[in-house]
Amino acid sequence: MLQDSSQRRLLLSPLVVLIVWCLAVYIIGRIALSHNGDEKSKASKDLGRKKVRVFCMLNHKAGDEARARAVLETWLKRCDGYAFVSTRERTGSPTIVVPRNESRLILWVKVQAMLRRANTLRNEYDWFLKTDDDTYVIVENLRLFLSNHSATEAVYFGNEFSHDIPGGFLSGGAGYVLSKTAVQLIVEKGFDTGLCDLADHEVEEHRLAQCAGKVGVRQDGDTIDHLGRGRFFPYGPEKHFTPGNEDLGGWSKHRLGHHFNCCSDTAISFHYITPIYMYILDYFIYILQPSKDWTNAENTDV
Hints:
single chain, alpha/beta, 12 strands, 14% strand
């Protein structure tokens, strides 16, 4: 028998966290597949007129099979092509190998390897998504967003942090997506000429922002929807749904709402997602279907 109320609260807290998480992912599932709103209707028609070809590149820590399996069995298969970027080959998966010891200090080197590979694929794909293996992506909503932009623009999109460097930078964890034109300029004018700093650096986003600026590639963090709700998220749904995290302590360029007002109907990505929650998100978004026969049914229980 518990001795006091504080002990009871300690036992209940994991259950509360689980309930909040389930509520958050259920809501995300509902809004991700929603077909309401003029913006989505217009973009859906656009998708019928042109193909948006996306190649996905994932920073992957060698040997973390739980993460690799989770992304492969959920969202990654919806990309037009993909590759892991790791310090050694992953058996059975396309891998861009960076032959170094695994460390945060080689994150910028990994991104360079991604972009160099992307530059060889510009005739096959229009856009190149860089993200991590603990990021969940709703690929259909990414294509939806990109359908309103041209891959001939020298631009890359994501969630902008307004701290640390002038002009801010886009969150690598939330993922950023580069046009094929942006990839070409960064690699050929930035990397190959020595214009950009290629030395090891753990904050890849800083180096990329600086390099992009030098070669005329526009960084665009204005990816919120017409209601001011976010699309690329540097944390999981529960963080962004919780009051007090609207601008992540002043880091985010855009101050979002909380609860239902944090996240767009066409949300694209969430970071810090554990393998089991990859499957949960996939279930809520793509599998769970409320019964239409009982929608708004009158409750006849006595």
